[in-house]
Amino acid sequence: MAYGSKGLLAGSFLRAAALVLAVLASAAPVARSWSKEGHMMTCQIAQDLLEPEAAHAVRNLLPEEVGGDLSALCVWPDQVRHWYKYRWTGPLHFIDTPDKACTFDYSRDCHGPDGAKDMCVAGAIANFTSQLLHYKHGSADRKYNLTEALLFLSHFMGDVHQPMHVGFTSDQGGNSIDLRWFKHKSNLHHVWDREIIQTALAEFYDKDMDTFRKQLEHNLTKGTWSDDVSSWGDCEDLLSCPTKYATESINLACKWAYNGVHEGETLSDDYFDSRLPIVSRRIVQGGVRLAMFLNRIFGHHNRDVAAPF
């Protein structure tokens, strides 16, 4: 199913820039996503890993006003999802799975509220990947808005790595599990979206996102995850690998997010200390895999990837 990203011509960068920058200036933050910092770090990590051809394509697709910085617009899909024009994108940010099944089945779970197929975050990544594969095919600027497709792909790669974006149906991925995070009210989904990241920034990084990101990148290249990173990018088929990432997330949600948590309780140091490594790893995995997708879409690997639409 091909959908979306046809509202603006891909070549109309000035109009696209006006749209995205107006959104950034005016929109309030919304739930159901990595925090702004989480999405930005995923996109910064990815951009640092781009090969020359992919880096050039990304810069070419971004509005001039952001100076080639993909992370500046990685939160855009959250900020427009409640606009009438983009309301249809709401179901693309998450996947609801059967309660306590702790599995993801694409044919069973990837659908919208009305049953429309492919309307979930795994389907969205495959769809926008397919659109971006037209970048070198000449007619892309007529068929799809590749600027929007790039922003959606970059954002949804972050979403699919947030474990609670592949959560249980009855509690809306933890949104209806109310609790306290240290001394203030929150919910389980929000803890994984934002609270753990914000607490880490305040406790360890003097609220400096760049310092946090540099620590993550150090762990990627020389530290904790340096032996794992090559396997993170393994993907024989770009259009099916999002299912693998979603399966990882529901497994992590069951093992680390839902496990031992009860409505109304207070989560604090023990939960934070044990879950921060999971959140950090998923932010970095999202960045590594986004870079892999973009390198294959825009680089010489493109010849090995079929564009089905």
What characteristics describe this protein?
two-stranded parallel sheet, signal, 309 residues, globular, mainly alpha, S1/P1nuclease, hydrolase, single chain, EC 3.1.30.1, three-stranded mixed β-sheet, 13 helices
What does this protein look like?
- By secondary structure, this protein is mainly alpha-helical.
- It has 13 helices and five strands.
- It has helices at 13-26, 36-48, 52-61, 76-80, 106-109, 121-132, 140-143, 146-161, 188-204, 209-221, 229-232, 241-258, 269-298, and strands at residues 95-97, 166-168, 178-181, 184-187, 266-267.
- The protein has a three-stranded mixed β-sheet with strand order 4-3-5. The chain has a two-stranded parallel ribbon with strand order 1-2.
- Strand 3 (178-181) and strand 4 form a beta hairpin.
- Helix 2 (36-48) packs across helix 8 and helix 8 packs antiparallel against helix 13 (269-298).
What's the order of the H and E elements? HHHHEHHHHEEEHHHHEH
Total strands? 5
Cα distance spanning the termini: 9 Å
Radius of gyration: 18 Å
From the spread of the alpha carbons, the general shape counts as: globular
Strand order of the largest sheet: 4-3-5
Strand percentage lies at 5-15%
Broad structural category: mainly alpha
Low-confidence stretches: 6-18, 23-31
Tally the helices: 13
Helix content: 40-55%
Described by strand count, sense and barrel closure, the largest sheet is: 3 strands, mixed
Summed over residues and divided by their number, the pLDDT gives a mean of: 89
Keywords: Disulfide bond, Endonuclease, Glycoprotein, Hydrolase, Metal-binding, Nuclease, Signal
Protein name: Aspergillus nuclease S1
InterPro entries: PLipase_C/P1_nuclease_dom_sf, S1/P1nuclease
Catalytic activity: Endonucleolytic cleavage to 5'-phosphomononucleotide and 5'-phosphooligonucleotide end-products
